[in-house]
Amino acid sequence: MPDKVKFTIDGQECLADQGVTIYEAAKANGVYIPVLCHYEGLKAVGSCRICSVMVNGRWMASCTQPLSEGMVIENDAPLVNEYRQAIIEMLLAEGNHFCPTCEKSGNCELQALAYRYGIMVPRFPYQFPRRKIEAFPGFLLEHNRCIQCQRCVRAIQTEDGRKIFAMKDRSKDIRINIDRKLAAKLSEDQIQKAMDICPVGAILKKGVGFIRPIGQRKYDRQPIGSEIEGEK
Amino acid sequence: MARKITIEPVTRVEGHGKVTIHLDDEGRVSQARFHVVEFRGFERFVQGRPYWEIPVLVQRLCGICPVSHHLAAAKAMDIMVGVPPEKLPPAAEKIRRLMHYGQMLQSHALHFFHLASPDLLFGFEADPAVRNIIGVAKFHRQLAVHGVILRKFGQEIIKVTAGKRIHGTGAIPGGVNKSLTPEERDYFLNSAAPYNIDTIIDWAQEAVEFFKKLHQENKEVMDNFAAFPSNHLSLVRKDGALDFYHGVLRAVDAEGRKILNDVDYQDYLKYVGEEVRPWSYMKFPYLKKQGKEKGWYRVGPIARLNTCDYIPSPRAQQEFEIYKSYTGGKPNNMTLHSHWARLIELLHAAEVIKDLLNDKDITGEKLIKKGKKKQEGVGLIEAPRGTLFHHYRINRDDLIVMANLIVSTTNNNEAYNQAVRWVAENYISEKPQITEGMLNRVEVAIRAYDPCLSCATHALGKMPLEIDLYDAQGQLLDRKRK
């Protein structure tokens, strides 16, 4: 068995280690594939589909699909980009995302992707769902902005390994649910971690909004993806 | 035959309003009103939002002076986080001041040069095709350039303090999120002319001189047009100095007697009431002690120079003394003198900006403070157009449950109506024909107060004005729209 796997992305011949996913292989070769539900160090779930690529003519979620020899992957291709635009637009239309007053603006992955993929206005009608803000000691859960990526479900646990965040209900009613008793025990650092790991402005540590000035926010200087592909 | 005239939209002001003038059978004015026909609802939809989001959210009320709303809300939130304005870290307080005085500079420049100067340069009844900023640029090039660059300078000051020229994020509860870097500071102090503060101060001084010359040449109009006595209200510094950022609430009557004596604005509800009239979305504030009939007041440049004892910067103080001596030290109740007052404030703002840029705290590092939380706070500021009130209450979850905003333009509501009535009675009453120039006179009177109608109704959109002419039976005879 050879040590390295050969494959191509957008016509570029690449090599990657055995046993990695398409996403990881692309990253190792300096090719950016967008992700929302996936997060480094967490088990991939492939739920948001923004990382979908075309492999030998079939759609595959690159964060969960293992790489195999000879794969011909289309990533930065018109059809794939169009598909990703549609996903971003659906997410924007489905929730209540008012970037101008959102404290995550400039640090928000969904917003950064919308910029990267040139979204001017969603083609889909805004749903304007009626959702609430839930308050917990030390943080707020802003359901209007949640995209159900489940990063918090996977990443935030008590010291003895119990989950605090979980999914509740199904389909259009699906939402994040929090165990209030366990949430009360979250440390400041855990709350900060939950806020940082959230790709949008759904988890908000109390009283610290807008602390990072415009110009110094994560995506003010470099667009999303440049950390992998370098500045274009 | 009786008529009703409608001017809609009122132009060269910010927002959307209209004027109606009713004439009786003899063509005399029976009623003249300034209506604000926008509705926005910010006070309602901030409810349920976290308190630290409010300074960024409510500034969307306006695109001209968002900094005022941003800072008034931030001052209210300072109270919530237990840091009263006096306790703010010095760097934070000075950065906020710099932001605010930058805004004063840009907003006053915008109003005088872009919106008001066409009337003063070309005449109230000049051809509307020339009576605009393009006409100013064509026939008074230097003045137009000064206007544009003064405004740009103010906008750049806002950008370095708030992150963006419009709708930034600089002030946060208990402080600010950035100070100036030495390079940013030096840009404003040392750039080649005209982009340095010394040139800006000189140009602001020239603007004052320009107005004084206009005044000399047109004394009769400048002194008498839409002039009427009123009370005046503003913040003043504790020692009575002019202060746009913080102070105590003072009101004087038309003769200069103090009727509100340097009170703490946290208690503003004790002193200020708001009356609702069915024909306008804009409320009518009044001083409770004087009552609804006699308690209305003016705010803004003319009011501020009537309430304050002095201006704490040398060149503006010198101009203030000339300005005050014109009325023998008494309050100035002349509507068109608000341009004069505004330009003195423009000069003062430029001088203060220089002082702040030379203050070592402006590059300070301690930017934020927290104290004992409260659930209610009031923030007041002198916005370019006058005193701005923000009052909020939060619940135990840190979410807003009540918001009350009294914006500068609202405070001047009765003054607009007085001014419109004055023009209607003096220029439209008993005239056989209504001309565009006569209608523009109505707008000149409104424009002198630099109203921001979008703010006042807490609206999207253009600034259209309509004049309706009704007969004695209330039948619409003529409507002029813009």
Topology:
The complex is a heterodimer of chains A (232) and B (482).
Chain A: E1 4-9, E2 12-17, H1 22-28, E3 52-55, E4 58-61, E5 71-74, H2 78-94, H3 109-116, E6 133-136, E7 139-142, H4 151-155, E8 165-168, E9 175-178, H5 180-183, H6 188-197, E10 203-205, H7 218-221, H8 226-229
Parallel strand pairs in A: 1-5
Antiparallel strand pairs in A: 1-2, 3-4, 3-5, 6-7, 7-10, 8-9
Chain B: E1 3-9, E2 17-23, E3 29-36, H1 42-45, H2 54-58, H3 66-80, H4 90-122, H5 133-139, H6 141-162, E4 171-172, E5 175-176, H7 182-190, H8 197-217, H9 219-224, E6 231-236, E7 248-252, E8 258-263, H10 268-271, E9 272-275, E10 284-287, H11 291-294, E11 297-298, H12 301-307, H13 314-326, H14 337-357, E12 376-383, E13 386-394, E14 400-406, H15 408-411, H16 413-428, H17 436-447, H18 453-456, E15 465-470, E16 476-481
Parallel strand pairs in B: 1-16, 2-15, 6-11
Antiparallel strand pairs in B: 1-2, 1-15, 2-3, 4-5, 6-7, 7-8, 9-10, 12-13, 13-14, 15-16
Helix pairs in contact in B: 4-6, 4-14, 5-6, 6-8, 8-14, 12-14, 13-14, 16-17
